[in-house]
TrEMBL record:
This is TetR/AcrR family transcriptional regulator. PANTHER family: HTH-TYPE TRANSCRIPTIONAL REGULATOR BETI, HTH-TYPE TRANSCRIPTIONAL REGULATOR RUTR. Keywords: DNA-binding, Transcription, Transcription regulation. Residues 6-66 form the HTH tetR-type domain. Residues 29-48 bind DNA. It comes from Actinomadura rugatobispora. The keyword Metal-binding does not apply. InterPro entries: Homeodomain-like_sf (IPR009057), HTH-type_TetR-like_transc_reg (IPR050109), HTH_TetR (IPR001647).
Amino acid sequence: MSRRAGAARERVLAVALKLFARHGVAGTSLQMIADELGVTKAAVYHQFQSKEDIVWAVIAPALDELTRVAEAAEARKRRSDQLGAVLSGVVDLVVSHRRLTAVIRTDPTISALMRERPALRALEARIDRVITGPDPDTETVVSAAMVSSALLAVGMDPRLDGLDDETLRRHLLGIARRLLRLRPLPRSRPGGVPGRDAHPA
C-alpha cells in the first residue's frame, strides 16, 4: 500500500470512528462518511468494500493491543504480576483510545459482531481469567466486573475530557489496583510514569 493510499485509509477510519461515536454504527452510512470527508461514496468503496469492513478496521488496533496485553500477562509467573500486567495494559489501551473503547463498550452493532467471532470471545475469556484468577470468590468476580465495565466506559464521561493522559492513567490504575486488592505501585522516578518504571506488585 502506498503512503498516499495508507493516509486516505486512515482518514476514512478517523472519520468513521467520529461518526460511530456520534450516531452509532447502525446510524452511520457510507454516504455520511463520504460527506464528512468531502469525497464521493465511490472513493470510500475504493478503500473498503463495506461498512462492516470499516468497523473491523476501526477496532482492529485495539483488539491487537489487547491480545498483546493478554500474552504479556500470561507469560508472568506470579498471579499478582499477571494481574498487574493486565491492568496496566488495559488502562494504557483505554487512555490511548478513549473514544474507541467507549464505542466498543456501548454500540450494539459492534457488540453483535464481536460475539460472532470465537477468537474474540476467547480473548475476552483470557483477560477475565487473569483478572479473576482460577477460583474467584464472589467479591473478586464483582470487583472484576466493576473494573472492566468502568474502564471501558471512561471515554464516555465528559467530566474526564480535560484530564491529560498521564493523570487519567495514574488514577485509573491506582483505583483499579485497590479494587482488585493489589498493592499500590511505588512512586516513579522524576520524569517517569507510575506502573511503567517498576514491576507490578
